[in-house]
């Protein structure tokens, strides 16, 4: 069968043969056993409902074995034989170009070069899934291939509920992930619902089909590192940045350190992902012995090298040993997947990677105890460095939150706030989000690198022209992004689809998108798929990350994210998504995203202007109402350019009066 024929058949009527478990693939760890005997039967019934009754007797023991062995039913035998990657849009079957673009993005999220655990349909973060099982993938791709512009596909946590009649201006797909009743958002609630096959953790851009590999976070990390050094008034050259995690998102850290121009040490316990990142060029060197690491770092600092070093081991060893050696760390952070601390997001010291995985699956209580013990040591070592002048920031991965729950010394003197700010509180919030700058991204649907080069130039030209008349308050953001886009080709940031990301405000996003649309209309480039990270001005309500610099008491509310996705839906998005749990953990955040296909038409121009303006200014208005100075400036400026925008501006109370 051809690729197109395989897509159109969906779940095959004749079952394929079982597939061998490929040990060379980076697999998800075994999930802990959490279902009762009756619940295991329910999980099997839930999985078998995708198949005709004639197949149940054959599949039942196989699915039972998967549930017992891995803690989940992935339906490995249904994994397609064709290569998984973002093909040019013309190669997908279908009646609707928008639906073909979504198929392209789904396959990019599952590309072996992009996905963290591709056979388990997990893109990044240890549990950020596109689908729960392979039947869902096959059925979704079939629905998309059959979809017309008068239908919308409803996606319930990876399950394609079906195609519903709608209209041409409606989103083609509406995605929800993990949207459970608030009282059932504890980690074990997710474990149970996911094992039953009724809910999933979509992370941010995994379950919304908008992940573009590590590049997506390289840019944000580069800006964070640059501004971190600016904050301590030191040049990155000759500076040391220490962190941990080399997974889907965190793998971007060493590359960002190189672009910023410092020495980066990033610890990782998983040998497979460490060597993958090294082979992809995201890391310069891998060192497995702490005795070799210390002199190598000292040499790099003495010579003002720009180098990234992966330490294959536990990061606590690095912090403790650098303290003993009195090796000064300028910037410190952590980007392990601590939103998922008990299922592979963070590993205890004193155990090998294999021993940890065994303990996690077979003695979860002991594993939790060892993780919390390690978190306490981790925090103690960081505190010793910060007393010597290290600037440490929480990278929004729930490090301080989980460390506090473990009893670590991370609270400020008031015993309410953390002693270290998150990077959003200190850097991204006041410097970027409040002014409307966030991670705007695009993908060339043609798959042609020449199209990407052309879009890079278009975006750069737009930004350079805008900078001539931009206010002083945003000159630094403009300059950083012009520098970034000029070095994008040289830094070889593409993994998977031909994609790019930069930080832009509403004006920049609209002007860049319109320039793309005009180029498509002239036949200069193929279709473009617009999107963004959910980690943005307006898409995410996350009290310990995206909205951590909201101080009016509303940071635990989620009106902004919900308003965002509803507003995007009727203003022209091609698909929208809303998730529980991305980035900092299940029950800790609500986040939304979108995708938009540009086809060169006047209708696309109208949609992009309407939707992108709302998508950013919704968040600025909320930040303005929280009395954030930069956001008040930005929303007033937006009202000057758009007379239909009328925003309630806060009145400031005199502190002396209070």
TrEMBL record:
Keyword check for Ubl conjugation: no
Cofactor(s) in the UniProt record: NAD(+)
Cofactor note: Binds 1 NAD(+) per subunit.
Domain Urocanase N-terminal span(s) in chain numbering: 84-210
Location in or out of the cell: Cytoplasm
Broad enzyme group: lyase
Family affiliation: Belongs to the urocanase family.
Protein name: Urocanate hydratase
Native source species: Flavobacterium aquatile LMG 4008 = ATCC 11947
